[in-house]
Design goal:
Rossmann fold; six-stranded mixed sheet; four-stranded antiparallel sheet; 26% strand; binds adenosine-5'-triphosphate
Length: 260
Amino acid sequence: MSTAIQIDDLSFAHTGADVPALERVSLNIPTGESVALLGPSGAGKTTLLALLDGRLFGWCGQISILGAPLDPDHPPMCARRPDTGFVFQEFALVERSAVLRNVLNGRLGRMSPLRALMGSPTKHDLEIARTALADCGIADLANRRVDSLSGGQRQRVAIARCLAQEPRLVLADEPVSNLDPARAGEILALLTGAAQARGATALFASHQPDLARRFAQRIIGIRCGRIAFDVPTSELNEDATAELYREVEPIPGIGLRAVS
Ligand SMILES: Nc1ncnc2c1ncn2[C@@H]1O[C@H](COP(=O)(O)OP(=O)(O)OP(=O)(O)O)[C@@H](O)[C@H]1O
């Protein structure tokens, strides 16, 4: 089976940070797998996803996405961009634009440069965007401006935009944090189901172990920038989860230390 994400000995510190956000992380995620990243606030989940998306630089180690190595100092080539879809924790939508326009933005990397520049989608692009809206249960919101939507509705728009991109790898940073439990389950089912139906790989960060169990085949626990466990979902036990979320306290000049 081919590999979607290969990470070897990855370390990274944010500019000005005293301690690294990630330290000596190695993992391999085969194509088609749905994987959840669990970990307490500040563990390094967002940092890891942003690195995999080619948005942070100056890291050490090796990262390979869909068979192509990332450059630690430069963004990925434009041609590779559409293959990775990202659902942001803060949505990253164009607030004053209509929902449909936002979802069509997911198609930009699939359009010819001229069409993308003119903002002129083909019939096919429109069809895909409307299907993504319908799949996310928000077809009726197509013409509403994003700044008139609730947090949960925005989250659906962000997911629809990602699906419209037709990515081979879906990275999602707490993609359902603004939804009630029933809707959260529905949307994660949609996101992971859509990825699986297309043979795509999904890696999503979550604070909700129960949702991770339901929608991931494998669960990776991150704590203080290091991998605490990496197990098939069926093997995740309560003790490992409790240990992952055990309180940490900052030690001046040293970083984070687990409270015993
Ligand atoms: N832009 C930044 N500059 C400096 N330090 C940062 C920056 N972004 C994150 N960090 C630090 O990097 C570490 C990892 O943060 P990260 O946001 O990746 O954690 P997380 O697991 O995604 O947390 P959460 O669940 O709260 O989103 C934390 O110590 C955080 O304070």
